[in-house]
Amino acid sequence: MLTVINLSKQIGNFYLNNVNFKVNKGEYFVLLGPSGSGKSLLLEIIAGLQKPDQGKITLNNVNITEEKIQKRKVGIVFQDYALFPHMTVYENIIFSLSKKESKQNTIKELLKLLSIEHLLNRKPSSLSGGEKQRVALARALAAKPLLLLLDEPLASTDAMLKAEIRALLRNINKLGQTVIHVTHDYQDAITLSSKIGILNNGTLEDIGTTSEIFLKPKSLFIAKLMGIKNFFPAKIISEDENNQIKVVSIPENIEIKLVTEFSCGKEGWIIINSEDIVISLEYNKVSSNNQFKGKIVEIVPILNSIEVIIEASGIWAALVTYEAAYRLNLKENMEVWISFKSVAVKFVPN
User: Fold this and answer.
1) Helix, strand or coil, per DSSP, at residue 202
2) Do 289 and 252 belong together in one domain?
3) Do residues 237 and 210 both lie within one domain?
4) Is 218 helix (H, G, I), strand (E, B) or coil?
5) pLDDT tens-digit profile of 293-348?
6) What is the CATH number of the domain that holds 146?
């Protein structure tokens, strides 16, 4: 489908550095990275809005590196929607279609899919954010692009609208549309992607399936980007006779059991997802578990769960349900036990 080979671009002091990746037909590929990492620049190069200094882009085995944007068979939705304010919704949608195409037939199914049939005669100034989003999607999809490019499409939408647009984007992808979506929000990446690329300061640090990237982050940068809070510098200090269960030491002389292929003496970082930490009021006699006693320093409601911050020879973050928090009667300054399985610990070497 899409192949990006050795793509580089310099703008001022910023370098997009030797980027390589492939997107297969029907994939939902998310480019995830912080602001200023080069995500939008890379998208603009693929769309034809910017020219690379070097490298090659092919779409369905056709070299489109120097092709004009009108001939690339890609559609793009910008963060600010970029709708023409003087045009009606209908005029915005058909703008990219040629006279040879039957415009009414082309957009009829799109209007139904995006639920915007009733908006055709309105101007963008009279639309809500969600309606503008749908119109921008309709305009990008009207020409039946091989590839749909999305530039931070959910960055300025509220929580309720995000859920709605995410569902819409998933549905568009399920209908066979190949998508590249750039975002700084790891939740967008997790809920939408079939493959993720991690972009950091112009360099593509890692690429893989959603589960590969999220469950086995290859660097501290990726772990932080994914919203993981429990990561500590560590060194493997011992291993069992089967070379499977190992013990690492982290600051404040804590020893933690984990399962890893790395040998004694290896230094790096350990990562434990907040969802894998269990809070209890009493010590649990399970030898395979890691377990520490600590004190709750903060309780923070977030979305559908509660984040509990615990000081236990270090600062730990655990996610619990509202039901569990109520059942345990969790409060600040309360002493609790935290535990997590050895298999829940990921080791990232230096």
Assistant:
1) coil
2) yes
3) no
4) coil
5) 999 999 999 878 999 999 987 889 999 999 999 999 999 999 999 999 988 988 87
6) 3.40.50.300
